[in-house]
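Course assignment 3, question 2. Fill in each field.
Student: A.L.
Task: Predict the tertiary structure for the chain below.
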Amino acid sequence: MICRYFRVARADMVFLKFILEAYEGMNVMTTVDNVNGIIRIAIMPGFEGEMDNLLADLGRQVGMEAVEWEGATGFLE
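Answer field:
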């Protein structure tokens, strides 16, 4: 599993969650820091390309800034 972290507006978190849940089995979105708007998207093996395309499209619709997350443990990465 590959984990990617993004800073998003808190108002956009629910929208992103609903969209990403529609791609069941490809990813899991988790809020890791609600105050700062940090989310983690865990991408299942074999879906990296599709998720890259989806995240690029979503990034054009809502502000998503890729970030390094100091709280990452390396467990899923």
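Instructor remarks: The chain has a mean pLDDT of 90. Residues 2-67 form one domain.
Grade: pending
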